[in-house]
Amino acid sequence: MPGTTIQAISIYQLLVPLREPFVISLGPLAAVQNVVVVIRTQDGHVGFGECSPFLTINGESVDTCFVVGQYFAPVLKGRDALDLAGALAVMDRIIYGNSSIKSAFDIALHDVAAQHAGLPIYAFLGGNNRKTLHTDMTVSLDAPAKMQADAVRFQQEGFPAIKVKLGGTLEDDVARIRAIRAGIGPAHPLRIDANQGWQTADRAIAVLQALAAFNIEHCEEPILRQHFMELSRVRAASPIPIMADESCGDEHDAARLIQLQACQLLNIKLGKSSGFHRARIIARLGEAAGLTLQVGGFLESRLGMTAAAHLALTSDAIRHCDFDTPLLFTDDPVVGGIRYRAGGVVELPAGPGLGATIDDAVLRRAQQVHF
Fold first, then answer.
1. Which domains does the chain have, with CATH numbers?
2. Catalytic site residues (predicted)?
């Protein structure tokens, strides 16, 4: 369709400090280093996408994304923006992996396609807004007293569930959870995320069994993702349900984990799956297998998290949302997008497409390239 031909593509770096370092077992993060993709079509539609590359998870950085995006832009320019699967196939032919920057292009293209259809992205993908989305709030890895204070504050702020970063020694992690439970009480929903920090199955099983008494909903990625063949043994021995995160990047990973009966839950992230196209396949696989699903993210702004929120409305099996990182930013560069309400409620914007853009003043100051 001539009107939906991609006329111009712009790529920007989005750099924002965090209020305080965000620490996980893979290391500390002090600032947001993201990439924003803007796609314009001949008929005047403008689509926005964002990725938050993560060196230790998807092997990408703001620099690699900025460069690889310049491989994609001249090839995608002139193509039909509505050929979503075709665009992803083109990017896959250009370079293997690089799921983070591919997701920024995929989100921007879905924004255009949904605007063209006159629908919000979730409706364009077959979803609905009948359910209310709630985000958890994450306690960064630190000393027990600091983690307890943060958890108490998040509980007082009304977040319905608290997620705790772990991944240290058995003694240290038990001390952290014991302190948090002493602060928030025995009943407030509590989830944990080791980010592969326990490394081996035996060590993970020992820690999970030691945490059995603390009423924990689930545990994300307890062992090194390379050891995914061992995850089913962890699941069988763990009193806490297991969620795959780093080991579940695309639909092929999800299919393997399901076949292995490796986990009860999957965590879907657009930055791991290369965007909506593959994320939806993962969701369908998980739903068919009877798994509970979560949609999360990295350090996306409210723009990237708005895309994640649209995804969360496309499947009834998606019951958990981890959309809290924009609350850590020192500045909010997003116009429109999701809003955080009382009780951890996440409210999507009305109207067609993504419903979020980046402030023009922020884009003008950013390192940028145009095609």
1. 2-118+359-370 (3.30.390.10), 124-357 (3.20.20.120)
2. 165 (proton acceptor), 269 (proton acceptor)
